[in-house]
């Protein structure tokens, strides 16, 4: 668990981070979002004491980080950065095994752990263990970066725009894998990004920052439904907000049972998002879809009218409905 | 890509062979000079002696290597340590000072250092060692600074973030990554000093500079050539050895 209480950071007279409070419960994924220079990376680095905060308290697992030895604190917190920061003169395997070796794990345990992580991140051991970072593609290098951060099985993972430098396809793949990984490992993650779609896709808790302050925080859905001000609204995509909200909603939650009428021709798996369903309706010029399960058996029906109506119900209480 | 790899291995082979070639040439010259009286006689027909005889060349070479070696050892220790110290957080204030001091050492001509050192240290080997240390410091300090400052800030930051201590970051990350640049500085320093050490002969430090000075004083070109030839071959041998290790370091850093 990570807790920040009234934390500030001053560089000279300038406040890079200004009185922020935030709590990330154990196993939750928190995304810090904002434009560059808003203090999100500074906030992240204060948690593992790469930057010392000027005021307030930061607690890790209920204990003030000032009471930890910084070196020991960092060894129990995974850290991933955009440029990977891998050691160019070390092989992939050696890079991944860094923290366990610092913790003086026995040699065999380190080796086994490195293999386990390489498999977990889809890096075949025979192919990659002895490669050097410059021989990897951007995506592969960042997998190694994530593996290195996870090596000593830390409870906490800090990620600073880890996928920011990757091409869109690789980025999306790694986002998906990170989501799967997180579902399995249940780390407490603080993830810095300026890509709102990435944040919406991955986060349980969304924190929007602007000039060192937290503008709004809450679940992605809550923010989409009630953005606090025009800034948050524009970060969330303005007019696109409806679709982004749809992207977070599953078809399963809005389908009706199969009616008497002829089932629609277009089929959509129940686990897909409403956004994908809407896109399919537009593509296939229809206003009804047949919802199918994993075996491609029809289990329900989705209609445009119902989606729109229920979206309105979601909006009850929203201050600015379109 | 293919062509590149070919030329790379070619130069790597060269780097491996060259020290041997120069080393053998040095040895052959060392052993051969006394037998080449005819050749040197042709160069200097009127001289009484054409082969330098006041000391044998093995001793001169040995003393030359010793003087340069001792000076190099001191320079490396002082230069690298100073470079490390002023790139640490605590020593950062001294960075400009150290840079300027090292530059000053090199702008000060070794002859002047000798002239100033003799009255305090007396004649012999010590003044030339001091002069070489001062003269050789700059390339090492400068390259140590450049090498350490050239290490990617993100790599250093992530090393710290992984929980490495400052000492571990220095030893396992900064120094290995800066090593090729530092080695290049040592190479420059030592190679220059092999030539500069000949000046020691003027203050009574007998080394390969002796035949050169004696030759100049007596107007005997043959002596000068003998000393110069051996110094040049020594410098080439040592330089090619450094080249070999430098290539090895680089290839390890960008190993394939």
Short description, anyone?
The complex is a heterodimer of chains A (about 325) and B (about 260). Chain A is α/β, with parallel strands linked by helices.
Reconstruct the topology from this structure:
The complex is a heterodimer of chains A (322) and B (256).
Chain A: E1 2-11, E2 14-24, E3 29-33, H1 40-47, E4 55-60, E5 63-64, H2 70-75, E6 77-81, H3 92-96, H4 98-102, H5 107-120, H6 125-128, H7 138-150, E7 156-160, H8 168-185, E8 188-193, H9 196-202, E9 205-210, E10 213-218, H10 220-225, H11 230-235, H12 241-247, E11 267-269, H13 274-284, E12 288-292, E13 298-303, H14 304-314
Parallel strand pairs in A: 3-8, 3-9, 6-7, 7-8, 11-12
Antiparallel strand pairs in A: 1-2, 1-4, 4-5, 9-10, 12-13
Chain B: H1 2-32, H2 37-43, H3 57-87, H4 95-107, H5 110-121, H6 125-149, H7 153-161, H8 166-196, H9 209-218, H10 221-253
Describe it.
The complex is a heterodimer of chains A (322) and B (256). With 322 residues, chain A is α/β, with parallel strands linked by helices. Chain A folds into two domains: 2-243, 3-Layer(aba) Sandwich (Rossmann fold), CATH 3.40.50; 250-314, CBS-domain, CATH 3.10.580.10. In chain A, 38% of the residues lie in helices and 24% in strands. Chain A contains 14 helices and 13 strands. In chain A, the strands form three sheets. Chain A has a six-stranded mixed beta sheet, with helices on both faces. A four-stranded antiparallel beta sheet of chain A has the order 2-1-4-5, covered by helices on one side. In chain A, strands 11-12-13 form a three-stranded mixed beta sheet. The longest helix of chain A is centred in the middle third of the chain and has 18 residues, at 168-185. Chain B is mainly α and 256 residues long. Chain B has a single domain, classed as Orthogonal Bundle (MetI-like fold). Helix content of chain B is 79%, strand content 0%. Chain B has helices spanning 2-32, 37-43, 57-87, 95-107, 110-121, 125-149, 153-161, 166-196, 209-218, 221-253. The chains are: A alpha/beta (322), B mainly alpha (256). At the A-B interface, helix 2 and helix 4 of A face helix 7 and helix 8 of B. Chain A: It is found in: Cell inner membrane. Chain A: InterPro entries: AAA+_ATPase, ABC_transporter-like_ATP-bd, ABC_transporter-like_CS, CBS_dom_sf, Gly-betaine_transp_ATP-bd, P-loop_NTPase. Chain A: Keywords: ATP-binding, Cell inner membrane, Cell membrane, Membrane, Nucleotide-binding, Repeat, Transport. Chain A: Its EC number is 7.6.2.9. Chain A: It catalyses: a quaternary ammonium(out) + ATP + H2O = a quaternary ammonium(in) + ADP + phosphate + H(+).
């Amino acid at each position: 668990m990570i807790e920040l209480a009234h934390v500030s950071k001053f560089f000279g007279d300038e406040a890079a981070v200004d009185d922020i409070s935030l709590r990330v419960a154990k196993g939750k994924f928190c995304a810090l979002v904002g434009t560059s220079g808003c203090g999100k990376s500074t906030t992240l680095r204060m948690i593992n004491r790469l930057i010392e905060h000027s005021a307030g308290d930061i607690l890790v697992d209920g204990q003030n980080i000032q009471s930890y030895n910084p070196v020991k604190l960092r060894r129990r917190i995974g850290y991933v950065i955009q440029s990977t920061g891998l050691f160019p003169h070390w092989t992939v395997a050696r890079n991944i095994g860094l923290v366990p070796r610092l913790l003086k794990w026995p040699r065999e345990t380190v080796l086994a752990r490195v293999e386990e992580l390489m498999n977990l991140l889809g890096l075949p051991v025979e192919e990659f263990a002895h490669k050097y970072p410059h021989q990897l593609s951007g995506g592969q290098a960042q997998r190694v970066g994530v593996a290195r951060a996870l090596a000593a099985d830390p409870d906490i993972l800090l990620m600073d725009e880890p996928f920011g430098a990757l091409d869109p396809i690789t980025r999306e793949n790694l986002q998906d894998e990170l989501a799967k990984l997180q579902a399995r490992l249940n780390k407490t993650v603080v993830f810095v990004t300026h890509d709102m779609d990435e944040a919406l896709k991955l986060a349980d808790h969304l924190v929007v920052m602007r000039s060192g302050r937290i503008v709004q925080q809450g679940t992605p859905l809550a923010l989409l439904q009630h953005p606090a001000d025009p800034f948050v609204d524009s970060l969330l995509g303005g007019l696109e907000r409806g679709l982004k909200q749809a992207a977070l909603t599953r078809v399963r939650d809005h389908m009706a049972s199969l009616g008497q009428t002829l089932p629609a021709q277009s089929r959509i798996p129940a686990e897909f998002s409403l956004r994908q369903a809407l896109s399919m309706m537009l593509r296939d010029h229809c206003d009804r879809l047949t919802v199918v399960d994993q075996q491609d058996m029809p289990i329900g029906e989705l209609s445009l009218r119902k989606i729109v109506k229920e979206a309105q119900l979601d909006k009850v209480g929203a201050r600015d409905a379109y | 890509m293919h062509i590149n790899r070919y030329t790379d291995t070619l130069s790597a082979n060269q780097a491996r062979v060259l020290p041997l070639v120069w080393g053998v040439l040095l040895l052959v010259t060392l052993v051969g000079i006394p037998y080449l009286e005819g050749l040197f006689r042709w160069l200097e027909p009127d001289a009484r002696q054409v082969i330098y005889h006041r000391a044998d060349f093995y001793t001169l070479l040995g003393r030359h290597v010793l003087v340069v070696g001792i000076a190099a050892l001191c320079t490396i220790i002082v230069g690298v340590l100073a470079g490390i110290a002023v790139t640490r957080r605590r020593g950062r204030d001294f960075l400009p000072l150290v840079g300027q001091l090292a530059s000053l050492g090199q702008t000060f001509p070794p002859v002047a250092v000798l002239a100033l050192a003799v009255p305090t240290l007396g004649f012999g080997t010590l003044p030339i060692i001091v002069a070489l240390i001062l003269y050789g410091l700059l390339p090492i300090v400068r390259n140590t600074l450049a090498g350490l400052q050239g290490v990617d800030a993100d790599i250093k930051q992530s090393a710290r973030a992984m929980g490495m201590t400052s000492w571990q970051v220095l030893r396992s990350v900064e120094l290995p990554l800066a090593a090729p640049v530092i080695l290049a500085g040592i190479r420059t320093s030592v190679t220059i000093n092999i030539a500069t050490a000949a000046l020691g002969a003027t203050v009574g430090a007998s080394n390969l500079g002796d035949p050169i000075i004696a030759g100049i004083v007596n107007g005997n070109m043959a002596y000068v050539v003998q000393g110069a030839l051996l110094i040049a071959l020594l410098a080439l041998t040592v330089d090619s050895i450094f080249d070999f290790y430098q290539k090895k370091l680089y290839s390890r850093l960008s190993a394939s």
